[in-house]
Amino acid sequence: xxxxxxxxxxxxxxxxxxxxxxxxxxxxxxxxxxxxxxxxxxxxxxxxxxxxxxxxxxxxxxxxxxxxxxxxxxxxxxxxxxxxxxxxxxxxxxxxxxxxxxxxxxxxxxxxxxxxxxxxxxxxxxxxxxxxxxxxxxxxxxxxxxxxxxxxxxxxxxxxxxxxxxxxxxxxxxxxxxxxxxxxxxxxxxxxxxxxxxxxxxxxxxxxxxxxxxxxxxxxxxxxxxxxxxxxxxxxxxxxxxxxxxxxxxxxxxxxxxxxxxxxxxxxxxxxxxxxx
Length: 277
Prior knowledge:
mainly alpha, Serine Threonine Protein Phosphatase 5, Tetratricopeptide repeat, 15 helices, 0% strand, globular, disordered N terminus
């Protein structure tokens, strides 16, 4: 899927080497700031997509589309098919954004696998690499183990490159990813709860105001460690926090509080399920 998209982009974009962050569409950025409202997020995504019609090299718009479609799938629906559809759109825009790196694009078009070409990414690519990797991981995981294992090498390579270039990106996102990764893996594929614990703790230490890391720790790690006290403490912290303390991530933190409430309601099922393993 990715190689085909990259080939198409090469025809659409006259000179990938000239790709630069364009001036933000004011209406799109204004709507983006209100993304906690699903309708506003949809309008923002439409506005960013509209800007691509006149400037397909707009890295800013592409980056927001990747992140926005991921967020729209992650935080605004519980329906599996809707999540798949929205994350698929995130991946599509993500690959268009990754193709702005001419070196990466050339490597993939010449037959190199995406995971092997990931070393071509540079600091300016970090936002698109991070959100493409995140969307691809969630898109694969929700479709089952076979799909997950097929795409894990690419997801890992992308996230590893982000970790090399900017480990603090999006509130220490790489460490948060590795924490979820080592907890969610099946045993035969390398599950390691101690590594998960260490990575999640590092992400929380680096960005204590971002609530999503504690939600991940409560959902993926605590039940497997039969740590009900830790589960409840993390979710209480999330629910007691002021989601607007850091304006830049207020929408994400607000949605993480909604996730925390749902997890608390599933507490009995989560820990019964963990006991049965």
